[in-house]
Amino acid sequence: PAKPVLFSGMQPSADSLHLGNYVGALTNWIAMQEEYDAIYCVVNDHAITSQFSPEQLHERTLATAAQYIAAGIDPEKSTLYVQSDVLEHAQLGWILGTLTGFGEAGRMTQFKDKSQRYGADKTTVGLFTYPVLMAADILLFQAKKVPVGIDQKQHIELTRNLAERFNSRFGETFQVPEGFIPQATAKIYDLQEPTAKMSKSAATDAGLISVLDDPKVTKKRIMRAVTDADGEIRFDRDAKPGVSNLLAIYASLSGREIDAVVEEFAGSGYGDLKKALAEVVEGTFGPIRERTNELLADRGELERLLQQGADRARERAQQTLDLVYERIGF
Ligand code: ADP
Ligand code: NA
Q1: Which residue ranges does the UniProt annotation give for the motif 'KMSKS' region (predicted)?
Q2: Is 197 in the pocket of ligand 1 (CB under 6 A)?
């Protein structure tokens, strides 16, 4: 039987992925490409709804794709492409926009949060209709499964409503997708503020571990990670968030249980744990960084892989859009 179609997008909104992205998202995407007909899209159409610079956006788009391939997204097994290479996204987005209530779109909490953050003069119609384009991204491929974080659940609900609305008005056309939260994975916290999640939007980079950073920078950040004064290596998120974060990272990158890691380091100092962690991080990120840099140095090969992905994605997107056009009398 055909594998179920899975769609997921990532914004090219940073120079490098960080450890949270790697553990929380990328490792799942790599694992899911076996079970699913997976489509992974670098969503640059979405990225221009926040402030951006064209040159930087172009570099980040390629670097994001390169890191995915380097980490294990197989462009033969999965469909990996850049959104703007497939114009059908925008075309279907327009059509779905005509089926979306103004009030319905206005209830999207992510829009409300972001527009408040950006200020009224920087809020655009594009940001407002972002969830409609996201619906188009998913419906274009007749995706059955969409892995999402909790913050995207409302957008998946809108996508389902639009699919059902279109189907009931114009006849069975779209697969109604299901959002799902992939198997529980470790949440990674900031090294300097270990009760806040590691995020590219953190006030400083001191708490980040990034895939593409120089290993010396990463080691320094790990050695300076916030711990506590009791000096004992134990896992206790409430009383010892810093040490617990280091233990959880060590466990997830070395594929071991936290208890086993605690046992290994019982009686050692925090410095020993940090040194060992820096080595495990480099053991994981070193080869990914090297492969990413090779891909970025050979633009021709990277662009060929992305073109191939776009060709495959376009062929599938066109089938859906042809059917949609027929249904609405175009
Ligand atoms: P950021 O917070 O850096 O802006 P995004 O919101 O772009 O990251 O998240 C991209 C993906 O990475 C999402 O699937 C998200 O769940 C995952 N992710 C981001 N930060 C973390 C983290 N600290 N721990 C685990 N997963 C994370
Ligand atoms: Na974010």
Answers
A1: 197-201
A2: yes
